[in-house]
């Protein structure tokens, strides 16, 4: 099946435009190419927030929607929130918001829960709502035996998905932390709502 981004991927990888393209289509692909990045074997879309998100085909999109809506960490949120979670997870396709809305609307659990009236609801207590990549724990390991001048490992763990990011480091200082956050966290997962540390001086840069 011809995916929606196949022509753009071929153009970014080989600079070849389909022969049957009209002048208007050629003009459009040249203009749109500024917002795509090819990193073999994936094509990435540059978002309005300047973050890269991997372009996915429709079959993979269905699986991503299921994980971001139906899975234990999905939360069964509405279409807009589900689409936002997909973007935050680093994926993109043109009909994302429409597909997320349709997916939430067709979710059996959401429809059954949505039909419960207020008088049938049990009293609820306020809970802190944390989505995937919203809250990270960060800390240094070390000092360890030196390896290529590195004596520390800086580790960050997402509280919801348990995703781990780690780098070797020569020093355990604030400069190392800032570089790590910009390169490994902010640029890939967005700016988190909460960063949890032990309050060491390396995490309290003035």
UniProtKB/TrEMBL annotation:
It comes from the Eukaryota. One of its GO terms (biological process) is DNA integration. It holds the Pfam family Integrase_H2C2. Residues 119-206 form the Integrase catalytic domain. GO terms for molecular function: nucleic acid binding. PANTHER family: ENDONUCLEASE-RELATED. This is Integrase catalytic domain-containing protein. It comes from Cajanus cajan (Pigeon pea).
């Amino acid at each position: 099946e011809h995916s929606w981004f196949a022509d753009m991927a071929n153009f970014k990888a080989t600079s070849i435009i389909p022969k049957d393209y009209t002048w208007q289509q050629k003009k459009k692909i040249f203009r749109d190419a500024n917002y795509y990045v090819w990193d073999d074997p994936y094509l990435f879309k540059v978002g309005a927030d300047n973050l890269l998100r991997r372009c996915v085909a429709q079959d993979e999109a269905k699986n991503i929607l299921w994980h971001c809506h139906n899975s234990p960490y999905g939360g069964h949120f509405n279409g807009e929130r589900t689409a936002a979670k997909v973007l935050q997870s680093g994926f993109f396709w043109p009909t994302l918001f429409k597909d997320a809305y349709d997916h939430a609307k067709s979710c059996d659990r959401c429809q059954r829960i949505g039909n419960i009236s207020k008088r049938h609801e049990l009293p609820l207590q306020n809970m802190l709502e944390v989505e995937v990549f919203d809250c990270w724990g960060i800390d240094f390991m070390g000092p360890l035996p030196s390896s290529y001048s590195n004596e520390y490992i800086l580790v960050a763990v997402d509280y919801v998905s348990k995703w781990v990011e780690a780098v070797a480091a020569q020093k355990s200082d604030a400069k190392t932390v800032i570089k790590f956050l910009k390169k490994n966290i902010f640029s890939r997962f967005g700016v988190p709502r909460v960063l949890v540390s032990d309050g060491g001086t390396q995490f309290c840069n003035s």
